[in-house]
Automatic annotation (TrEMBL):
<protein>
    <recommendedName>
        <fullName>Glyoxalase-like domain-containing protein</fullName>
    </recommendedName>
</protein>
<dbReference type="Pfam" id="PF13468">
    <property type="entry name" value="Glyoxalase_3"/>
</dbReference>
<dbReference type="InterPro" id="IPR029068">
    <property type="entry name" value="Glyas_Bleomycin-R_OHBP_Dase"/>
</dbReference>
<feature type="domain" description="Glyoxalase-like">
    <location>
        <begin position="4"/>
        <end position="188"/>
    </location>
</feature>
<dbReference type="InterPro" id="IPR025870">
    <property type="entry name" value="Glyoxalase-like_dom"/>
</dbReference>
Amino acid sequence: MRPIDHLVLPVAALASARERLSKLGFQVSPDARHPFGTGNARVFFKNRTYLEPIATLDQAVVDKGIAEGLVFLDRIEKASARAPEGFAMLALKGDDAEEALDAYRQKGFGVGDLFSFVGKARNDAGEETEYGVRLAFAADPKAPEAAIFVCQPVGMSVNTGTHYCDHPNGAEGVVAVAAVAKNPADFHVFLSAATGQRELRATSFLVEADLGSKKLLLMTPAGFENRYGVAAPDPGDGFVFAAFEVLVDNVEKTRQFAPDGMRHAERLVVPPAPGLGTVLAFVEHQ
């Protein structure tokens, strides 16, 4: 079983993502630039998950990376072709990306080579520090717009669970990710392989993987609308990531930061908007 590490959220511009997320009551860390043509800003949480809004900063460098087989860039481009902003990939925690990629390949879901890079980010003092990751990607050929990957930190961890984690909206971390497929059962084997979770809960409208204290839900469009009260994106013949849930200490307190949100069951659901192109649902402690 591999817990959720972070969510890859393509955006048109980092400035618009920072504005949107800040208005929603999140503290956003300083921008960082990747050596392969993209840049990000992050929202870190105390439960060691984080959001990664990501934008293309140099299209020529991105195109070169895609031509060289960089799965990370390819999936961002494919997801962005369907919708300029959204939710492209789910990253899971792992201690050995090479072992994970071998396992993915053995099950027929490994994509590309092991991807390693070193990036730079500014610490609390404004000084640039280096961090590294190794990534192993899994994808189902039937779902060209989505991918799940294992993220192994190398050297300094990008998320300590302490820096930039005090959010005015009371957010404590991502607790669920939701994807949509016309027939979730078609991806049961893939989700089991990608998450390392052998036992998945399955019904006619849902496949659910328990990832420690967090969940990955793959549901039908009708199931998605029932859970969130908004229409699901069209997944075509594959599946697409469509929403994530963030735990807060008090939904009513959080509501002041989300005037466009609506209460649906026990959730405060925020629709997609420029700067965050996917559904966000706030939930509080039970």
